[in-house]
Amino acid sequence: MNEPAFPTHYTEMAGMSLRDYFAAKAMAALIICADQDNPQSAFANNKNCAKWAYEYADAMLDARKKEGK
């Protein structure tokens, strides 16, 4: 499922996907919760943070599917 986050009737301007939107919101929360003073923190690794953000996004999409949305 790759539905747009902000659907419009202009198909050529679909914008970001709902998955990308959810991942961006999750990443913001992960960054806020990061321990910036501890370079050994799991959140200090940007690649892990991005990976986890999409895992959260996928979980949100699965929850929407189960709720029939």
Mean of the pLDDT scores?
79
Count of structural domains: 1
Proportion of residues in helical segments: 40-55%
- As an assembly, this protein is single chain
What is the count of helical runs? 2
The largest pleated sheet is described as: none
Computed over alpha carbons, the radius of gyration is 15 Å
Instruction: Please report the total strand number as a whole number.
Output: 0
**Which descriptor suits the 3D outline?**
elongated
Strand percent estimate: under 5%
Q: Based on helices, strands and strand pairing, what is the structural class?
A: mainly alpha
C-alpha end-to-end distance: 12 Å
Extract low-pLDDT stretches. Answer: none
Helices and strands, in N-to-C order?
A: HH
Structural commentary:
With 69 residues, the protein is an all-alpha fold. The chain has one domain. The longest helix has 21 residues. The radius of gyration is 15 Å and the shape is elongated. The N and C termini lie close together (12 Å). The mean pLDDT is 79.
Write the layout of secondary structure elements.
Elements: H1 18-33, H2 46-66
Attribute tags:
69 residues, elongated, mainly alpha
Please give a quick description of this structure.
With 69 residues, this protein is mostly helical.
